[in-house]
Design goal:
The chain has 145 residues and is an alpha/beta fold. It is built from two helices and seven strands. The protein is elongated and about 90 Å long.
């Protein structure tokens, strides 16, 4: 009887040694502090980041594939009433809407590179299926010296 008791006691002690570090590690994991909203971006401010190009279907032109340009940047806070665009820190991806073929050609040469644009008009993405969190409708590229 004592041999059976000693075996079970050794098994329980071994299990406690294995489980105790896992339990204490879980208790030490505190929730990280909530992320702070990005700095504000207003009309006339500069937005910098890597330019990406994606092929998307044009809704207005019978599903023709067109290029869509997007800047990935640090989180930014848009002017009121848009604010954070229902995100914790604000949008990080900004779609650049091209208004002419000249603008599209200009952006094509910068794909995959860091660029800076002066923002004249920006809003949260509202159309279903948009791949960016915010849309910059009026902008101009800032030339680097």
């Amino acid at each position: 009887m004592t041999k059976l008791f000693a075996t079970r006691l050794a098994l329980v002690a071994t299990m406690m040694l294995l489980v105790t570090p896992a339990i204490s590690a879980q208790q030490e994991d505190a929730a990280p502090p909530p992320p702070k909203p990005g700095k504000p971006i207003n009309t006339g401010d500069v937005l910098s980041g890597e330019l990406n190009a994606m092929k998307v279907r044009d809704v207005k032109n019978a599903g023709k594939r067109i290029a869509m340009y997007q800047i990935t940047s640090e989180p930014r806070r848009l002017p009121a009433p848009n604010g954070l665009c229902n995100l914790e820190t604000g949008p990080e991806t900004f779609q650049l809407v091209t208004s002419s073929d000249a603008q599209a050609t200009q952006l094509k040469s910068f794909v995959g590179k860091e660029i800076s644009v002066k923002v004249d008009e920006v809003a949260c993405a509202s159309d279903p299926g948009q791949m960016s969190e915010a849309v910059v409708t009026k902008w101009s590229i800032i030339k680097k010296q």
